[in-house]
């Protein structure tokens, strides 16, 4: 395929190069361009106003880091063909293509078919992109074949079905280019310096041992900093109680809208959003309507629903639009049935709604995060004598107990 080298100015990593014509063609696909209209951090802008960056920008950054990682590994004698490099970059470019509006919220609101998540949608979209290029009349038969071959290999790498397992590890593991980008990028746009990691040094310290990704021993301190930064970012940004409160409010809004439509109430919604609100998630048109969804579908609907005749929906949407979010109360223990009954009675009397409708005004939620999974694929440290040790054993600062500790916080989010 004709080489189409493009340069993109990225505020985090500087000038990013799109080095291959195949990658540029994939980048131009509507499924990928849709990510421009989906915020990377969902509703975190309610806490960090600068957190307005898109999934598209994150995908570009991750692709850039994949290119850097492959370049570094090649310099150390690791055999990676040009086709493998392009396929790995295509796989990471598309790894988040299946995200719905406001990232995970759409999924958590039960808008997808049971047992389906955004990674399943990503894989479906990858197959669609491959098939679209194979049948496209825009490119020559040779170019169509090149893109199809790259996409086939990218899908195998994404699914961990390709012989070179380390290529999948660069996409999805406990130390991958996805995490390296989103920690650097999210901390930058949020203004949270604790999330900054030495991504360039970590990539330079990566190597391959027995077909698996390892980090050379002299990079151990950078890996320790990465793990600490990840823990801090989860509690300071991703699981910030106000961000979670906004997500729970949006989930309640979508749940109420879905219930009203199920009851025969006519609600304003874009055709794509209405498709999912109606529960038509098991038909052949799923991908068509999902690809038409982005943040604007939800935002425009919520603005209109704020004037709905339904008291519950209008109140929830008005609170969301004006940032009158659920208030978070940290609990020492889970709510009892008596606690829930008392809350229902309180809101029913306050707003003149039924006890069932009153449940839309509060929710109990558990926030939890683990820095490192002992059951997952280890972050291995490679020593000069050729031996390999798990970071949890090799680190003088972090041990397995510290890394795998999984704190949890129980919240009551409720309308003030």
Give your account of this protein's structure.
The protein has 416 residues and is of the alpha+beta class. 52% of the residues lie in helices and 11% in strands. The chain contains 20 helices and 9 strands. It has helices spanning 21-27, 30-33, 55-75, 82-93, 105-108, 118-135, 141-158, 165-171, 177-190, 199-205, 220-238, 241-262, 271-277, 286-290, 295-305, 311-321, 337-351, 355-358, 391-394, 400-404, and strands at 6-10, 14-18, 206-209, 212-216, 327-331, 362-368, 380-382, 388-390, 408-414. The strands form 3 sheets. The protein has a 4-stranded mixed sheet. Strands 5-9-6 form a 3-stranded antiparallel sheet. A hairpin with a 5-residue loop joins strand 7 (380-382) and strand 8. The chain is globular and about 70 Å long. The relative contact order is 0.11. The model has no long low-confidence stretch (mean pLDDT 93).
Brief descriptors of the model:
single chain; 416 residues; alpha+beta; four-stranded mixed sheet; three-stranded antiparallel sheet; globular
């Amino acid at each position: 395929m004709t080489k189409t080298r493009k340069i993109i100015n990225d505020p985090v990593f500087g000038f990013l190069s799109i080095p291959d014509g195949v990658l540029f063609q994939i980048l131009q696909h509507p499924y990928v361009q849709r990510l421009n209209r989906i915020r990377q951090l969902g509703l975190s802008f309610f806490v960090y106003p600068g957190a307005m960056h898109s999934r598209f920008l994150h995908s570009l950054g991750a692709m850039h880091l994949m290119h850097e990682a492959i370049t570094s590994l090649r310099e150390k004698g690791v055999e990676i063909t040009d086709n493998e490099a392009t396929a790995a970059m295509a796989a990471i470019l598309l790894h988040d293509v299946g995200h719905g509006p406001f990232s995970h919220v759409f999924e958590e609101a039960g808008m997808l078919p049971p047992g389906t998540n955004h990674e399943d949608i990503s894989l479906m979209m990858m197959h669609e992109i491959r098939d679209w290029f194979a049948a496209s009349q825009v490119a020559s038969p040779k170019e169509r074949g090149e893109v199809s071959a790259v996409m086939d290999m990218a899908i195998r790498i994404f699914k961990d079905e390709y012989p070179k397992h380390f290529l999948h590890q660069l996409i999805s593991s406990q130390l991958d280019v996805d995490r390296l980008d989103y920690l650097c990028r999210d901390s930058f746009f949020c203004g949270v310096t604790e999330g900054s990691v030495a991504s360039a040094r970590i990539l330079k310290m990566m190597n391959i041992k027995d077909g698996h990704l390892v980090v050379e021993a002299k990079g151990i301190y950078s890996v320790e900093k990465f793990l600490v930064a990840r823990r801090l970012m989860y509690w300071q940004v991703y699981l910030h109680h106000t961000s979670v409160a906004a997500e729970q409010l949006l989930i309640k809004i979508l749940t109420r809208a879905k219930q009203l439509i199920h009851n025969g109430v006519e609600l304003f919604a874009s055709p794509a959003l209405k498709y999912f609100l109606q529960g038509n998630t098991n038909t052949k048109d799923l991908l068509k309507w999902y690809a038409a969804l982005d943040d604007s579908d939800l935002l425009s609907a919520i603005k209109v629903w704020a004037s709905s005749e339904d008291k519950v929906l209008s109140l929830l949407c008005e609170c969301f639009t004006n940032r009158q979010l659920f208030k978070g109360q940290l609990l020492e223990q889970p709510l009892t049935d008596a606690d829930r009954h008392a809350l229902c009675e309180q809101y029913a009397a306050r707003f003149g709604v039924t006890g069932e409708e009153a449940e839309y005004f509060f929710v109990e939620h558990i926030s939890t995060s683990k820095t490192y999974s002992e059951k997952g694929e280890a972050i291995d440290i490679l020593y000069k004598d050729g031996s390999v040790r798990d970071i949890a054993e090799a680190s003088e600062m972090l041990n397995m107990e510290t890394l795998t500790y999984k704190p949890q916080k129980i919240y009551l989010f409720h309308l003030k």
